[in-house]
Amino acid sequence: MKKLDLYIIRKFLGTFFYAIALLAVVIIIFDISERIDDFLERKPPLEAIIFQYYANFLPYFINLFSYLFTFIAVIFFTSKMASNTEIVAILNSGISFRRLLRPYLVSASVLAVMSFVLTNFVIPETSKNMQEFQKKYLKKEKKGSESNLHMQISPGVFAYVESFNKRTNTGFRFSLEGFDEKGMAYKITGDNIRWDSVTGMWKIENWVKRQLHVKGEILTHGATKDTLLNLKPGDFSVDLDDAVYMNYRELRDFIELEKLRGSGNLLKFQIEKHKRIAFPFATIVLTIIGVSLSSKKVRGGIGFHLGVGITICFAFILFMQVTTVFATFGNLPPVIAVWIPNFIFGLLGIYLLKVAPK
Length: 358
Fold this sequence. Notes:
The protein is an alpha+beta fold.
């Protein structure tokens, strides 16, 4: 590492963390103003507010805006260097533009790795801690029911409930169907099915079982029946927000399980998984674009570079949203939808590198 590398890395990371710190202060102020009534009404301990809520609240929002503020930081301090003719002096000393780019890429890689670790391992844990605080002090427990739920719980075994009450963990008008290579092998129906949290088993009430054979069928019935199923109450009410509480391994395993069950939310979870890799990589792509744009001294100075840079950054965000919609409601594979913006803007970065002042 040369003095120039350390100078640029210090400028890059210093500007980024300073901007993120200002963002954190603004977020906290706005959130306090929004939740002050709840805090005064529920009276949570100050220690819980600071360490259980805000300490777990900030990582998500910091990571959410990290690549945007990386881009702004690059443009801001590089434009300032260009306006002070520092870039011209560096290039005139015999240092190539590619060599100048090295400390930028090192810094961007550090931030990309940080974003990857936050997204996939840290934020799921902090989100769980924040959820516990919200349940205890801010939010009332959600009570409601889901209806017409049908899923495959293991190969060839399908479960159905007409409605499921999340408060009592009870499903109504339950049926369980098993299939083999010849067709339906059995079917169990019941008026309702109830989860026993102590035994981890389901209790079917007023059940009837039809066991199908080549020569006919065997019909059995009873008042109650305890059965072990590859099914838990939370499986009846899966929401995209649940992905926030899963680390990368848990999300990957959950997607495989949802594939088996034929979940309608599968695409959304696949998009979320690929975003967790593509977004940190976007930090490097936007850094290359930012350096290429702001390394030339122009009449508009920092303001001009910031205006063009922010326009490109929001175009990137918009493009990401558009391709995500195509994946969700069209036939575009999730991995392509999430990575297309990085590829397109990566090509833009390569072009800007070629036309940047040498």
